[in-house]
Amino acid sequence: MTHRAQVPGPRPEEEVGFVGLGGMGQPMALNLAKAGTRLVVWNRSAERAEPLRALGASVAADVDEVFAHARIVIVMLLNEEVTDAVLGRGTPGFAKRVAGHVVVSMGSVEPDYSRALAADVVAAGGRFVEAPVSGSKKPAEAGQLVAMLGGAPDTAAEIRPLLAPMCREALFCGAVGTALLMKLAVNLYLCTMLAGLAEAVHFADRRGLDLGMFQAAIGSGPMASDVTRVKIPMLRERDFSVQAATSDALASTRLIVNEARAAGVSSPLLDLSSELYGESVDLGNGRLDMVSVIKAIEARTDALGHSPDVRATR
Asked: What is the value of pTM for the model shown?
C-alpha cells in the first residue's frame, strides 16, 4: 500500500504575512496570533494592527516588508480594486513582491478576477490559493468560519493547516475560481434565506403573533440553524448591529446575478432578494446588519396605502 506523505504547513519558526485587518480580517488574524502563529501584519489604517502587536505580531511599515519577512502571505481585502492597489498589480513591483511566495487570497472577489490574479502570480514565480470564507463577524471571532479552497492541490494542502485557527472546516473545491463560485452558491442560499426569514418575522409581527413563540417554533423544528438562532433575536429586538452589512449583501447578490446571467442561469428568488437589499441600502441601512432588509419589506407594506386592523389579538 502506498502512503501519501503529509504536506506540512508553515514551519514553526517562520512568519506568516497577513494583509488586511478589516471587520473580518482582524478577528481572523487575532485567532492566528492566539494560536501561536508568528505573524507580520499590515493594514492601511494602522490602528487596526495594534491588537495584533499586543499579541506579539510584527507590524510592517508597508506591504513590501510583509513579503520580505513571510513566504506565505494571506490577503483579506475589500475588493478587486483594493487588492490590485495593495499588491501593486500591473506595476514592476508586483512581480518582485510575489515571486517565491504563496499568496492566499481570502477576500470575496469575482472568480474571473481570481483566475487572472492567479495567472499573474504564477507568471511572476509565485503560487496562489483562493480561500474565500463563509461566515460573518461572530464566526470569525470564534474561529468557526468555513473556508473553500481553490488552486493546485499540493499548495492548497500546504496552507490548510494554517487555516485551522480561523476555520472549523477547509474544503478543497478544485481549480482557482471554483472556490469562489462555491461561495457564491452558498451566499445565494444565505441571502435569500435571510430575506425570507425577515419576511416571516414581519408577517408574524403584523399579524400580532408572539415573536418569542415564533422563535421557539423555528428553533424546535427542522429549519433551526446557527443563522436562525442569531438572526431571529436580532429581528425581534430590532438589533441591527453589524455582523454582515446590508451593503455587502447587496454587492454579493449582484455578483451572483452577474455570474448567473453570464452562464444563462435563472435566479428568481435571488433577483427579488437583491432588490430588497438595495431598497434597504437606499433607506440608509447600508452599514447596518443585513437583517435590516426587514425595513425594506416594512416599507413595501406601508406603501400598500391602507392599514386594516388585521392583527391577531395578542
From this structure: 0.90
